[in-house]
Amino acid sequence: MPVSAWGHAILHAAALIRLRPIANHQYSPLQLVSGSQPNISHLRTFGCAVYVPIAPPQRTKMGPQRRLGIYIGFDSPSIIRYLEPMTGDTFTARFADCHFDETIFPPLGGDKTIPNERRELMWTVPTISHLDPRTKESEIEVRRILHLQNIANTMPDAFTDTPKVTRSHIPAINAPARINVQIGQNNVAANEPSAARLKRGRPVGSKDSVPRKRKTKAHLNPNEIAPEENIGQDINVRSTIHDSVTTEEENDISETPAHEEAQVPENKEISINYVYTNELWDRRDMIIDNIFSFAVATEIIKGDDTEPRSVNECRQRHDWLKWKDAIQTELNSLEKCSVFGPVVQTPPNVKPVGYKWQSGRMWYNRLSEYLLKEGYVNDPICPCVFIKKSNSGFAIVAVYVDDMNLIGSSSELEKTAEYLKKEFEMKDLGKTRYCLGLQIEHLDNGILVHQSAYTEKILKRFGMEKAHLLSIPMVVRSLDTMKDPFRPRQDDEIILGPEVPYLSAIGALLYLAQCTRPDIAFAVSVLARYISTPTSRHWKGIKDILRYLRGTTDMGLFYTNKSVDNPTIVGYADAGYLSDPLRGRSQIGYVFTCGDTAISWRSSKQTLVATSSNHSEIIALYEADRECFWLRSMIRHIRSTCDLPSVTDKPTVMYEDNTACIAQIKEGFIKGDKTKHITPKFFHTHELQKNQEIAVKQIRSDENLADLFTKSLPKCTSRS
């Protein structure tokens, strides 16, 4: 390597120093900062040969698929830097796509270069344009391209009408743009503009894979298609393409009003497991909440092998014998434990009252009665947590349906497990490592909670497992509402068809944002507003989040064990004024940390219009205080029952960056000209502060952690 390339060597050496332990400490500097053991699987020998894939525009079928480069370091575990041997220019590539050969060290300048005359790096040369000089032939080629562009601009509107030129929205399929010319519209003049007509969110003339019946009668259900009419329609369409439109079809078109063709399409969307369930969703009737997001996440976690819903479905499976044994074992267990009383055969076509929820309620009542009889304590503030204190320690039983997590001292946990096995058939799985899609890693200095496997399943489900990486989940929004890429649908925009899984993507990302990824909470909250009328702009925002997750799959929440003896909760609250400027709504954002790690957060749009930034900050602080009161009550109950030192004697510190809001909360509700329109309930924070439950303090905006939940931040701010 020449002398000028030693700058890259120094940078690479500095990166290696951050990864190795230092002389006076057993951990590396990077591990001390991040709290987790650094990944070194991407390290390679400096200056070795790396074979990088050639981009598709320069790659041919018969030509080479990779080109040689010189490895000079990395930007991240997934991005490397390399030098072009002939020119000395620096490029980046994905680590997963590269092949390394650490036995070869190619020289800079090529094999033909004499070692004494090796090419020096020219740091002042930004490009390699000198390899393609400007000639007379290039000028002629540019003029030819401009001439063809002018010809294309004068073509009929069938080539320039945007709604008729579509691109496939199906993930992982890079289909070229295609032109859909309307059937029967060949007689339109070239200079006569044709209005864009919509049919179920697509240009008229686009053919369905399963032909649909034309809606000519009001009493017909559009989702039901008769077999005879379906065949007749297919024959009619084919004859129209090859010959001409029949008289009967022309009468049908003339009887249908024009406004019915341009009506808003039905907001239908296929479910994420449509192949197995044939379930359709109506975007206007769906409610995006925790239940919906958990249902979508459960389908993704289970994979393609969906569980049968009835005995008849079990009998049709190839592993029916295993299902039969499992069903019989479950019935024997229920009969032994007397959960439901005597088990009898239900008459055909008869469903008992409350069959959808009664079984879960009866199981909880049975388990609760059994644990309370042994001396476990339960509180309505956390009804699924049972606690028992004894001389040997304490045990906490956290119940979710039929799964239970035991926490406490080892001796008491053994007694609890034996006590439960006496009444119920249980299996001890050891330390909790996987629960509801959450992966839990037990380290020496704490616990790491992440969802790497679930994230990879999301990327694979939506065809983004090989997508390009992004450094932020959402682009910085423009203050101009007409330039904001996440504004509501315009009148000239087309609603996405049912083949675009917008609802499924929102549900899957919402579960991820609520569990271990607070960094995408604001982006998911903004895109969830448009579930009824999504457009291609909003779908692009979904793909941007997936590209961001593609590069941050291994991120999670690390809870250190240094704060076990005295866990302190700290809250941050903020509001994004006019986050939805067209409806005049602001954004709520708050986060609570314990040991500098988030334990509870929220990012949502306010339900009422705030008249000022001070008004929106008061509402955000009120919502954060409600969460703070619940957290303090739950911690007080758990620690007092376990006979642990109390940590709620001191008020919880709440940080806010609005000076006027802090002063107003300190004084309480005063009916004046500037505050008479604010509902008095939002001053509940004043009562909590007066009772020494919380203490509101001021903080700089750039240090407020809740700022992440109220707006999209640039790369430099989000990383810090």
Explain the overall architecture:
The protein is of the alpha+beta class and 720 residues long. Among the domains are: 3-129, no CATH class; 191-263, no CATH class; 565-720, Ribonuclease H-like superfamily/Ribonuclease H (Nucleotidyltransferase, domain 5), CATH 3.30.420. Helices cover 33% and strands 18% of the residues. The protein has 20 helices and 24 strands. Helix 8 packs across helix 14 (502-515) and helix 14 runs antiparallel to helix 15. The radius of gyration is 32 Å and the shape is globular. Mean pLDDT is 76; it is low at 112-128, 157-207 and 212-265.
Blueprint (SSEs and pairs):
Layout: H1 6-19, H2 29-34, E1 49-53, E2 66-76, E3 79-83, E4 90-94, E5 99-101, H3 136-153, E6 165-166, E7 178-179, E8 198-199, E9 202-203, H4 227-242, H5 247-255, H6 258-261, E10 268-270, H7 274-277, E11 280-282, H8 290-302, H9 311-315, H10 320-337, H11 358-374, E12 377-379, E13 382-390, E14 393-400, E15 403-408, H12 410-423, E16 434-435, E17 438-443, E18 446-450, H13 452-461, H14 502-515, H15 521-527, H16 536-551, E19 556-560, E20 569-580, E21 585-594, E22 597-605, H17 613-641, E23 652-656, H18 659-667, H19 684-690, E24 694-698, H20 715-719
Parallel strand pairs: 20-23, 23-24
Antiparallel strand pairs: 1-2, 1-5, 2-3, 3-4, 6-7, 8-9, 10-11, 12-13, 13-14, 14-15, 16-17, 17-18, 18-19, 20-21, 21-22
Helix pairs in contact: 8-14, 14-15
